[in-house]
UniProtKB/TrEMBL annotation:
GO molecular function: pyridoxal phosphate binding; transaminase activity
PANTHER family documented for this protein: 8-AMINO-7-OXONONANOATE SYNTHASE, CLASS II AMINOTRANSFERASE/8-AMINO-7-OXONONANOATE SYNTHASE
UniProt name for this protein: Aminotransferase
Obligatory cofactor(s): pyridoxal 5'-phosphate
UniProt keyword list: Aminotransferase, Pyridoxal phosphate, Transferase
Aminotransferase class I/classII large domain segment(s): 34-410
Position of the signal peptide: none
The UniProt record lists the keyword Transferase: yes
Pfam families (UniProt xref): Aminotran_1_2 (PF00155)
Domain of life of the source: Eukaryota
Sequence intervals crossing the membrane: none
Amino acid sequence: MGNTGGLDDIYSSLLARRSSEGRLRRLTVPDPAMVDFSSNDYLSLSTDADIRRAYLSRLRSPSFSLGSGGSRLLDGNTGLAESLEASIAAFHGAPAGLLFNSGFEANVGLFGCCAPRPGDVMVYDELVHASVHDGMRLSRAKRVPFAHNCVRGDARASPNESLDRVLTALAQGEHGTSIRAGGACVFIAVESIYSMDGDAAPLQDIIDCVRERLPRGNGYLIVDEAHSTGWAGARGRGMVSHLGLEDGVWARVHTFGKAMGCAGAIVLCSATTRRYLINYARSLIYTTAMGYPALAAIQTVYEFVESGRAERRRAHLEGLMRHAHGVLASLGARHGVPAEMFRVNRGPPASPIIPLFTTQARRLARHCEGRGFTVRPIVAPTVPPGTDRVRLCLHAGNTVDEVHGLCEAIGDWLRGAWKPEARKTVEAERGQSKL
């Protein structure tokens, strides 16, 4: 290696500063002895014995090869990839689909090229995933955020306007004539389920608003279904299909690394859009295609889910969501702690993701892990300041007893954390946050 001393010194300084701010990231290896309340494996399919047997059997196929040998445009395309795209698209009620190596690459490829002309605009929910932001940066389109899940209402909790106000302003702005005439394209990016709050997008309201403000049909809604694929809707088809909104959505991104228990992603779209992405999506064109083992895993899991064999898991997960939320919601009041110390959202959970809001997210997470439960603290800047939380993810493999054990651990922490000396610390932190 060349001389890296000076650069390493710069990096070390930056890492030290991040560490002093409590934001240093580290790689950790999950402890299999811990109870998982952290991963995105919502249906616990990644370790299912029946899926494992079917997958290993499929690997004995004469078609097996360890890798694909190249990008799909050169030597990496296979009949299995194309048939898998067609069957997954049909399962989700879409005309066509295009596989990507990950959800990140799917969003980067789609958003990086979908706006074909100057004057096109990308409007996005302020809480969309980082991969959407990275894709939009590759685009020539103007980027405009709107307040999270705020379609027409008051956006006082956010510096951004509602979707309705944003679209109205665009129609009156610099390229307003082209937008009103239907010439310029307006792409609207949302997620069906948001990964940090676990809340659902008001998809029907969004579609109605887009159609009203862009009556020429030049509003194109893109829905990232990463956190709804596999468990939401009939047979886990996702929120768009569950609500029957396929005709109001231009493109969907379904990923396989969460509830589906494997890896990869697909963009569902029209056949013409699929051909366009093959020609312009850089994260597809310039990367090695998935090999047979990855494709076989996706095929195996989809067959399992399509057959209905995951339905008992889905039903158990949905029951566990309601039960866990009910127990957690009572903890703060039972222990007499303020909302800053601990609270959960009031309404029933829309997903297996239940955020536990607290100003002491790291302390709570460490306490739970010390009791044998894996949970993760999520703090600013990953989430907006003042919304630190422990992100609780439920799984079909979790039991009611495990949920009660976690809640007991949280209750014990609350009793200790709200002693007089701890109360002074919380009040001091609250005072500093107001400065």
